[in-house]
Structure formats: structure tokens, C-alpha cells
């Protein structure tokens, strides 16, 4: 319990300071060396510059977010393309990579109503960041968004469960999510956690939703879109489906 309280205090402090804590990898902004990654980063910068203030929603994350362009493309076309959404996901990214991208062009010229953030699963393995470190990294991203885009509502999503059956990584995810949920203030930062919708009553994840027990199927992207629809409209004033961004839907009139 003391460790959990300390982790929460550190994460909230990073948000209050509007900047990342320095001293561990998850909060130190860093680019990646791969050429494809740098090319993708430049493409995302161009998306932001081209869309500019017309962008209504940003999606920020790793391969699960980038997957809106593949398995989730049909759902994206129905739900988010009409709202001038921008996909800022890059496969394999950890919190430190997203921090670097946000500070190096991904937010150029945009003034969205909403920023949807799902990040942290890649900090769980290989690099073995602790629960509090991952929470600090995500909190630093939220802080950067709040500082750079003060009028934008941040929708912070819980890290999704992974692995076919209950496992230690899922336990770590739950602990991180418990800390992250406390970043929400119901005004500028909103917490949404729908990970339980991908798990059945026995704690198993179906290949119909996560073919590799990590990345999402089209059906899983539909769940994501459905979970966002109400909060985006109610908390951020995002355009209803079928209406042009920035244009109120036509009012019904009553004839004689």
C-alpha cells in the first residue's frame, strides 16, 4: 500500500508540474534509431501540419493505435474520418518515444477538441519499467498535452489486457491503470477503461478480438469506437456522426 500511494503521488506531481520527471527511461523523451520510424514520424508531422486547426480528434499511441489504419480502417472510416481525426500511432513506441514526438512536430498547428491516448504496453516487457515508472511516463504525456493544447480534452484510455489467459503482465497492467485513473479530473482529463470487454468470464481473451492476444481485430476496434462515441460528444463536443466538423447538426423544424 505505501508503494502504491507513493507511485500515485509521483504521477500526480508530474501532471502538476506540466512536464516529465527526469531520472528514468519512461519519462525521458527519446527518438528511435530505425529509419522507418523516423520516416513515419515525419509523415505524422505532415499530417498534423496539413490538417492543422481542422483536426477534431488526435489518436496517440503505439501499434494498437496505428492499427486503425489496417484492421480498424473500416471502423475509422465510419467513426473518425468524418471528424477529421489524425492517427499519431507508431508500432513499438513506448512512453518516452511518444513524449519526444509530441515535442518534435506531432502537435504542430493542431487545435483538436479531443486527444485520445493509449500507451504503455510496450514499457511492460523487455525494458521492464516498473508500475510507477510506466504511470509516470503516461502522466508526463498527459501533462505535455495539457501544456501544449490547453483547450483540448484528453481522453486517457486504460492499457488493454494482453495474453490469452490471466498472467503477471495483466496484473501489472491493472496496477498501472489504477494509478492512471486518478489523473482524471472530469473536466480536462477523462478516464476510459474498457479492457474488460475483451475478456470473457473465465479471464480468457478470444482470437476473434485479439488474434495474437495483443493487437486488435476489426470487431475489437468497433468496441473501442463504441466506447468513445458518447464521451467524445458529451465531454468534448465532437461533431455527431453525419455532421461536418465544426458545424452544428440541423435543427428539426415543425411545419404547419
Q: What's the CATH H-level superfamily name?
A: SGNH hydrolase
Classify the helix fraction into a percent range: 25-40%
Q: Count of helical segments?
A: 8
By DSSP, the count of extended strands is 5
Short structural summary:
With 256 residues, the chain is an alpha/beta fold. The chain contains eight helices and five strands, in the order H-H-E-H-H-E-H-E-H-E-H-E-H. A five-stranded parallel sheet has the order 2-1-3-4-5, with helices on both faces.
Note the topology.
Blueprint: H1 2-16, H2 35-51, E1 57-61, H3 63-66, H4 73-79, E2 85-89, H5 95-103, E3 114-118, H6 131-148, E4 153-157, H7 168-180, E5 189-192, H8 218-236
Parallel strand pairs: 1-2, 1-3, 3-4, 4-5
Helix pairs in contact: 1-6, 4-8, 5-6, 6-7
